[in-house]
Amino acid sequence: MISAWLHDHEIVEFQCCNTKQKNIVGSIYLGKVKNVVKNINGAFVEFEKGELGFLPMRDLSLKAEEEIIVQVKKEGSREKKPLLSQQIELTGKYLVLTSDKAAIGISNKIKDREQRQEL
Known about the structure:
- Helices cover 5% and strands 45% of the residues.
- The chain is mainly beta.
- The mean pLDDT is 84.
């Protein structure tokens, strides 16, 4: 997969990823709730055909067969399904855009005062 970020018709950032290696962490899907399990405060969501993930929930307002947007936060293992979240995060070089926060924050890794002010 190849992607580029353009600003004023000039390439500012370029990425090339090997699509043969399937790393689903960070991927965003339109999933379908398959089962809500009240005693573990979560739901199992089909995010890819035949692929289920676990979505922890604070309130159990979701219903089976409901479509929701989820992001994979952690790969699955033999014992556990991939961990999903409804909090969507888009991560860039200097920015993390989150779906549930309106605040603006700048990474502490950026020490240069002028650069912090510019961002």
